[in-house]
């Protein structure tokens, strides 16, 4: 028995399953973090696939494509399904990062950047704080279990070699992507509105007291108001994260249904 004949048996199911599982370790929050070594992510993908293999192989009969090119296309299709789960989950954290950038720009922290080990990119100060806090809440509330559950449910909604995306999938992805802006602005609204009122007050003060140097007074006032309002809304931010993560799970289900 040559290698391809082996692929047409149970090994075909396992390799395709492993490919789909690997997709969430590319971009999804927590699982796809850059500070997790690649070897560890590969080992975790193999372990997940090993656990899911008996269950998936039991209720799905998969016949491998007749050609090597067909099998390679099937692997790309399964990788896209896993990547889609991770991408929809990552959108929520992209909104948090955007909210942090808006807050930093308004409060005066835009010139301060820190290296984020989870993404390997430079992030503003408040944005990095909100993102790391969201990751902590995500893990504490078992949000990573939601991604694993969504991965398992994907084999029921979209069986192996059963991905058949319709025309609504690009529109769904575009809608989720544009939601980054609206969600980010909802998170940043308290600080943004407070800084706006501060600027209005400073403008009135500059007209009534022309001899006052507004730039000297405004910069520390922006920093103080930004930190004060951020500390006040942090409890509500944690509650908002719970709603955001529940919405994330619903968005994953919506995206998977478009692949049926």
Automatic annotation (TrEMBL):
Record membrane topology: Multi-pass membrane protein
Localization per record: Cell membrane; Bacterial flagellum basal body
Name of the featured protein: Flagellar biosynthetic protein FliR
Membrane-crossing residue ranges in chain numbering: 12-31, 38-56, 68-96, 129-152, 172-202, 214-240
One biological process term in Gene Ontology: bacterial-type flagellum assembly
Classification via InterPro entries: FliR, T3SS_IM_R
Pfam families documented for this protein: Bac_export_1
Family: Belongs to the FliR/MopE/SpaR family.
Domain of life: Bacteria
GO-annotated cellular components: bacterial-type flagellum basal body; plasma membrane
NCBIfam families: fliR (TIGR01400)
Key word Lipid metabolism present: no
Keyword tags: Bacterial flagellum, Cell membrane, Cell projection, Cilium, Flagellum, Membrane, Transmembrane, Transmembrane helix
Stretches assigned to coiled coil: none
Organism: Selenomonas ruminantium
Known role: Role in flagellar biosynthesis.
Annotated signal sequence range: none
């Amino acid at each position: 028995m040559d290698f391809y004949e082996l692929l047409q048996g149970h090994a075909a199911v396992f390799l395709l399953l492993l490919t789909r599982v690997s997709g969430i370790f590319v971009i999804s929050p927590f699982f796809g973090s850059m500070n997790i070594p690649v070897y560890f992510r590969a080992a975790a993908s193999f372990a997940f696939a090993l656990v899911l293999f008996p269950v998936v192989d039991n209720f799905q009969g998969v016949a491998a494509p007749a050609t090597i090119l067909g099998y390679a296309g099937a692997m790309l299709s399964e990788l896209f399904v896993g990547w889609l789960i991770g991408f929809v989950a990552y959108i929520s954290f992209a909104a948090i990062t955007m909210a942090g950038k808006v807050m930093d720009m308004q409060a005066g922290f835009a010139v301060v950047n820190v290296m984020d080990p989870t993404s390997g990119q430079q992030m503003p100060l408040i944005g990095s704080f909100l993102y790391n806090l969201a990751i902590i809440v995500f893990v504490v509330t078992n949000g990573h279990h939601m991604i694993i559950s969504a991965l398992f449910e994907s084999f029921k909604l979209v069986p192996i070699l059963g991905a058949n995306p319709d025309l609504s999938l690009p529109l769904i992805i575009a809608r989720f992507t544009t939601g980054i802006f609206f969600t980010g602005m909802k998170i940043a609204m308290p600080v943004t509105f407070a800084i706006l009122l501060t600027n209005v007050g400073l403008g009135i003060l500059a007209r009534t007291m022309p001899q006052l140097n507004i730039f000297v007074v405004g910069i520390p006032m922006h920093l103080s108001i930004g930190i004060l309002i951020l500390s006040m809304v942090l409890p509500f931010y944690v509650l908002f994260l719970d709603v955001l993560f529940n919405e994330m799970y619903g968005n994953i289900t919506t995206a998977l249904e478009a692949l049926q």
